[in-house]
Design a protein that fits this description.
By secondary structure, this protein is of the alpha/beta class. The chain is built from five helices and twelve strands.
């Protein structure tokens, strides 16, 4: 059985858990270093990146998370999780894990009232055609390094990228019934 942790400081942990269960994984909430033991993968959910960073400080989880994401095990970061995985955050910077060679521009699509859904660009989705992306105060990934593989775009902007074992989505795949992004993670963990 594939065990996938979900950082449970903030964000829709339950929606990620349901998505993981739909693709055959067993989810586990992660709020302490010991919760990372025995995992085959990890999800860093959306939420508010400053709040999550402060929670990581409070729980003393930065180093164990940094070790996990650089261990080669599969990791998926969505929205704020993608910000935390980037090499740098702009527009009210927060500490990051430096797991992907990209800069995350926080709230690049606007405020909460500017939230929207859009399908990935046809022909640029690598098996994810028709995927609906839900953007809520979403970041934009810019200054992508050479090691970044773009898996999906919306309006030409990269919205799902992979670098090695790490997937970063600037949207919320857990808020739709389409399990393909979580399936990418679980297949990597299998």
């Amino acid at each position: 059985m594939t065990r996938v942790g979900i950082l449970a400081i903030q964000g829709d942990v339950d929606a990620h858990a349901r998505a993981l269960e739909r693709v055959g994984a067993t989810p586990r909430r992660v709020v302490a270093e010991k919760d990372l033991d025995g995992l085959h993968g990890l999800v860093l959910p959306g939420g508010e990146s400053t709040t999550i960073a402060k929670g990581l400080d409070r729980l003393g989880l930065w180093e164990s998370l940094r070790f996990f994401v650089h261990s080669g095990l599969p990791v998926l970061g969505t929205c704020a999780g993608a910000i935390l995985l980037s090499r740098q955050a702009e527009s009210h910077p927060v500490e990051t894990l430096g797991a992907i060679d990209a800069v995350a521009v926080r709230n690049a699509y606007g405020t909460q009232v500017d939230s929207f859904g859009a399908e990935v660009d046809p022909g640029a989705a690598r098996g994810l055609e028709g995927l609906l992306c839900v953007f809520i105060r979403a970041p934009r990934l810019v200054a992508l390094g050479e090691g970044i593989e773009i898996l999906a775009r919306v309006d030409g902007d990269p919205v799902l990228v992979r670098q090695g074992n790490v997937l970063a989505a600037t949207f919320h795949p857990e808020l739709t019934d389409d399990p393909r992004v979580h399936e990418l993670l679980v297949r990597s963990a299998g």
